[in-house]
Write a structure and sequence with these properties.
Chain A contains 16 helices and five strands. By secondary structure, chain A is mainly α. The chains are: A mainly alpha (about 375), B alpha+beta (about 650). Chains A and B meet through helix 8, helix 11, helix 13, helix 14 and strand 5 of A and helix 1 and helix 2 of B.
Chain lengths: ~375, ~650
């Protein structure tokens, strides 16, 4: 295989460490730091049960990021399909061997550790799509035949996650996949047709009452067992009250009355942005948004400077996933998006999501460290 | 072999363009999110700030302690005591049934009660505490407290409840409190007290003084803001800004708790009433009624079986006999008959010869003494309670004159005591009869024969034990003494009711007093009821009022004596008296329902009560000064 690859200049470990994108690492660490202090506040000034573990997990995840970043991008490209199919297999197996949690099968036990195949799929799908488009020429991207494999690649995991049921993750996977296809160069015409078709299908289903109101309710409840329209309305209102009463500069660290008084559910996970926004106000919340945007734009600049097509698309996929997390979560707690249970990356408490995000940024890092490497387009060799 | 060309400028250009587009789109969305933040945190800040305040604070009503009711010497008749309760917060209990099972090990929880608790939980939600049991004994309460670590969601609570230390003895004086009804709430429409009445476990006066003085006893609610969390649980009490509740006013009565208990003990086993009052001030010292209920059973919610037995008992334990029991006064009425006779010109020296009966109209009128009394003057007629002597007077006595005398001496009217349900009784006269027989014109005129019945306290005439006591007091003092029960409300001492001289020739009273003295002290009808202490010479008058006339048929069946009759047909026994004979201070009346004879049943009871009164002589002791009472201002906090 090495003959197929144009190796860039080979460098030693020390040199490669120096090549790491340190500003990106600092940005990510700052965001995780926000998580640590906010979780400390949520626990009413205690390192336990969340804050300390969050910090430690971040350090572990950061070493994973660096480790992945040190490995040449061509190796990751070579592993793309295996990772994707392994994740797909695990997803397919989840309904049979998975653990039921909150009414849904999402987890499987692996060597005594809980493992969520849908999380692995977030990276697997990005890698597989990047790998696929790496092999296509520009004119092939919008060819209808070449659209079938990515459609299947996206459709299979989305379908499997959808029936778990985990609506939020399914939508996230679909959106990420579509963004990659779009960035890869899908013609506007086909894009428009797709969007128009989806809107028409949705509207006619609604207009011609293929589904009755209570059926929609049932489907939504089935897809998301945590759903409780009344409860959500209440939680959303409480979230808005907490954020709004934070004002310009917030109520101060550990002084978030609304959150301390437990008006909010899931404070350590889905609603953590509200807590932060209440205590640090508009200034703090916008500051956090700027950190996120800085990570995203840094990621995109890394994508632009990468030499290989695979690296570019994989980085964009990872950044897209990250951006979607942030936008859906913040939109959700402010009533701009439905409450679907998406965490705020690196701030919300939760090890699996953090590891996924950081592993993804490992790829970004690898793309940066090995930005001068190019990889042969395998299709040209066939 | 194709050229290995990884450089595909067209492809790279598209990706770059699309990446810019994507980056721009994401940045725009971030600006949108920030805009939303601006809207929430800057533009609508005031609105959410207010909502946050509402979220956090809740106004709590602080229930005031109910005012105490004390006797003339400051002894508690109604006070407040700790009520140990066990509450359950459903949200904190993993399994309600399991928790209730565990609790049943220490305090019994019936299936019926359990069903009620579960219903309550369903109705009120998981965060509102529900009462499992109240009024627990200290041992039970402490046992549950000890086991608390194993009882998830169980909350021990100490509230306040009404306590009547005298129990039955004070039932009719004080009344009782009970739970608030919808009617009570409707009556408080638009009133601040409405919130107070809605407090869980709040009680209002249901009967007696508790009901009449509800407004004064209730006190004023306090207010406090509390910080709560989303579950309504109190996080912090903001005591700085709190208005403390004000306890209700203390009610100081004229009652002497000690003597009240003596009287209750004396009347035990009888269906009876006894009243003792001060002939100078009108203070009621004793107001006893037996059998009585225990008001403590009422304030924690009376049990259905007990209620049934109370309402169905022939001894009427729910009837306030001293005020609401009406009885023919019988021969006790002769004291006013003697006054009326003198008003119409009969001299006390006038005699009559009693052979045991006289013929009047179309029938015989019998004297209680079959063989007759022989020749008697007015004092002798009172002493021996001769019916024939009074029949002779009645032949020429105008009924309106008799009725007027009766009213002057306190019969046929009610008094301001503050206890609801007082009866007026009947003092018949021509006008009364016209109205009473409004539909029967032939019965409307007064027949002189009826005066013969009324003059010995039979026929239409009825009175309450209270009125009889007032009568004795007025005979003794010559003044229109009016009874009272409440000495002070809070620190406001009520003025003694005025007692003007009675508008009759006071010489007329002499023979009555002498006759009453003779009844007990000169071997009259109640010589057994005399008091030996010369300082407390007791003057009395017996009465036996007929409930059922023994017919010829009864006699044929051998039912000659009243003892042979069933209880409810036996005569009532009455006794009125005052002491000391010279310079009187206390008057007393005793009515024993179906006690058969005034001399035999009622007299000795009155004597024992008066003996205790004489021993204590409450009028000579300093009563409590209501202005010196310290109101307990401690707040009762809602649990």
């Amino acid at each position: 295989m090495s003959s197929l690859i144009l190796p860039g200049p080979r460098r030693g470990v020390r040199e490669r460490l120096a090549q790491l994108h340190w500003p990106l690492i600092i940005l990510l660490t700052m965001i995780a730091g926000v998580g640590v202090i906010t979780l400390y506040s949520v626990a009413e000034g205690n390192w336990r049960p969340w804050s300390l573990r969050h910090g430690l997990r971040y350090l572990v995840a950061l070493s994973v990021l660096i480790a992945i970043g040190m490995v040449a991008i061509r190796h990751w490209m070579a592993l793309s399909y295996p990772i994707y199919f392994a994740a797909l297999l695990a997803l397919a197996a989840t309904p049979f061997i998975g653990e039921i949690n909150m009414g849904a099968r999402r987890w499987i036990e692996l060597g005594g550790m809980q493992f969520q195949p849908s999380e692995a799929m977030k990276i697997g799908l990005v890698m597989a799509l990047a790998r696929y488009y790496h092999g296509l020429r520009a004119e092939q991207v919008s060819h209808i035949l070449y659209l079938i494999p990515p459609a299947l690649m996206i459709g299979a995991p989305v379908g499997l996650v959808f029936i778990q049921p985990d609506l939020g993750t399914a939508l996230l996977l679909a959106a990420t996949g579509i963004i990659i296809v779009f960035v890869a160069g899908l013609s506007w015409r086909i894009g428009m047709i797709g969007v128009a078709g989806a809107v028409a299908a949705g509207y006619s289903a609604y207009r011609f009452e293929f589904l009755k109101g209570y059926q929609i309710e049932r489907i939504l409840t089935f897809l998301n067992p945590d759903r409780d329209p009344l409860g959500q309305g209440y939680h959303l209102l409480q979230s808005k009250i907490a954020l709004g009463s934070g004002g310009l500069d917030g109520k101060g660290f550990m002084n978030g009355t609304q959150s301390q008084l437990k008006f909010l559910p899931e404070m350590q996970t889905d609603f953590i942005f509200t807590i932060f926004g209440e205590e640090f106000g508009f200034v703090g919340a916008v500051g956090l948004l700027i950190l996120y945007l800085a990570v995203i734009l840094t990621g995109l600049s890394i994508a632009m400077s990468a030499k290989s097509h695979f690296a570019r698309l994989a980085v964009i996929g990872v950044v897209a996933t990250f951006a979607l997390y942030v936008l859906i979560n913040t939109g959700m707690v402010m009533g701009l998006a439905p409450v679907v249970g998406v965490p705020l990356p690196l701030v919300s408490y939760g090890g699996t999501v953090m590891l996924t995000i950081m592993a993804g940024f490992g790829l970004v890092m690898s793309a940066h460290v090995h930005r001068d490497h190019d990889v042969l387009r395998s299709s040209d060799l066939l | 072999m194709p050229v290995i060309n990884t450089h595909d400028p067209e492809r790279q250009e598209i990706v770059s363009r699309r990446t810019f587009l994507f980056g721009g789109g994401v940045s725009l969305l971030f600006v949108g999110v920030a805009g939303r933040l601006y809207q929430l945190q800057i533009a609508d800040y005031d609105k959410y700030q207010d909502l946050a305040q509402d979220n956090q604070f809740n106004r709590r009503v602080l229930t005031p302690l109910r005012g105490e009711i004390i006797d003339r010497f400051g002894n508690a008749l109604a006070s407040n005591r700790k009520n140990f309760r066990i509450l359950l917060i459903p949200e904190q209990s993993r399994d309600i049934n399991a928790t209730l099972d565990k609790i049943s090990k220490y305090i019994p929880v019936s299936d019926e009660k359990r069903a009620r608790i579960i219903r309550e939980i369903r109705r009120r939600g998981a965060f509102t505490p529900v009462e499992i049991k109240n009024n627990l004994s200290w041992p039970d309460f402490s046992r549950v407290n000890f086991e608390l670590p194993h009882l998830a969601g169980v909350l021990p609570d100490v509230g306040e409840t009404r306590d009547y230390p005298l129990g039955e003895a004070s039932a009719f004086v004080i009344g009782y409190v009970g739970a608030v009804t919808d009617k009570d709430l409707a009556a408080q429409e638009g009133n601040d007290d409405r919130t107070l009445l809605r407090q869980p476990g709040f009680k209002v006066g249901r009967d007696g003084l508790e009901r009449t003085y509800e407004k004064e006893l209730r006190g004023q609610a306090g207010k406090m803001n509390v910080k709560i969390n989303a579950h309504g649980r109190v996080i912090e009490e903001l005591t700085d800004e709190a208005t403390p509740p004000v306890q209700g006013k203390t009610l100081t009565l004229t009652i002497d708790a000690e003597l009240q208990q003596v009287a209750m003990k004396e009347l035990e086993g009888e269906s009876a009433a006894a009243i003792v009052m001060d002939t100078v001030t009108g203070d009621i010292l004793v107001m006893a009624s037996t059998p009585a209920f225990n008001p403590n059973d009422f304030n924690v919610g009376i049990d259905a079986g007990l209620w049934k037995s109370l309402t169905e008992s022939p001894y009427k334990p729910l009837l306030n006999k001293p005020l609401s029991g009406v009885y023919p006064p019988g021969s006790t009425f002769k004291v006013v008959s003697a006054i009326a006779a003198q008003v119409t010109g009969v001299k006390t020296s006038q005699t009559a010869h009693c052979t045991g009966k006289i013929w009047y109209g179309n029938r015989y009128f019998h004297c209680w003494k079959r063989g007759g009394h022989g020749t008697l003057d007015m004092k002798g007629a009172i002493k021996h309670s001769c019916d024939v002597y009074f029949y002779e007077i009645a032949k020429k006595l105008e009924i309106d004159v008799l009725a007027d005398a009766a009213r002057k001496f306190g019969l046929g009217q009610t008094y301001e005591l503050g206890v609801p349900g007082q009866k007026k009784g009947i003092i018949p006269d021509r006008e009364w009869k016209r109205q009473y027989f409004a539909g029967q014109p032939e019965n409307q005129p007064w027949f002189q024969g009826e005066t013969l019945s009324v003059i010995i306290g039979q026929g239409y005439v009825t009175s309450t034990p209270l009125q009889l006591c007032v009568m004795a007091a007025r005979i003794a003092s010559g003044r229109a003494v009016r009874p009272r029960l409440v000495r002070a409300v809070g620190d406001l001492v009520l003025p003694e009711p005025s007692a003007p001289l009675i508008d009759v020739d006071h010489d007329y009273l002499k023979v009555v007093r002498a006759g009453m003295n003779a009844v007990t002290n000169e071997y009259g009808t109640a010589s057994r009821s005399r008091l030996e202490d010369p300082n407390w010479q007791l003057a009395g008058k017996t009465g036996t009022s007929q409930v059922y006339r023994i017919t010829t048929e009864d006699r044929a069946k051998g039912l000659a004596k009243p003892e042979d009759l069933p209880w409810e047909r036996r005569d009532h026994a009455l006794f009125v008296c005052y002491m000391p004979y010279e310079n009187p201070r206390y008057a007393c009346s005793v009515v024993i329902e179906h006690g058969i004879g005034g001399a035999r049943a009622a007299g000795p009871k009155a004597r024992e009560i008066m003996r205790a009164v004489a021993a204590k002589n409450p009028a000579a002791r300093t009563a409590v000064d209501p202005r010196s009472l310290v109101q307990r201002a401690t707040a009762k906090r809602e649990g």
